[in-house]
Design brief:
The chain is of the alpha+beta class. It has a single domain (about 1-85), classed as YaeB-like fold (2-Layer Sandwich). The chain is built from two helices and five strands; from the N terminus they run E-H-H-E-E-E-E. The radius of gyration is 13 Å and the shape is globular.
Amino acid sequence: MRILYLTSARDDLAWLRHFYREVFPDGAARALRHLMAAEGLLRTNPLVGRRTGIGDSRELHIALTPFSLIYRVREDRIEILRVWDGRRDRANLDI
């Protein structure tokens, strides 16, 4: 199944890149591997993430990072709504 990052998620990806480039550069390669593994898991098992309670969205934690993929499953694709930094206040999650 195809994975599509929506505009809001692309902005979050920019933050993730900044975080690993500027704050924790030693973890950048590992974080990328875990992000790609999470994408692979979603492609083969789209319902693997837990329900968020917000519409039909689901959440899959990216291993060994503070980030999660917030997504929804469509017939022909998986839409990544946010790449959520779990250290942020959940009340600010806008999807």
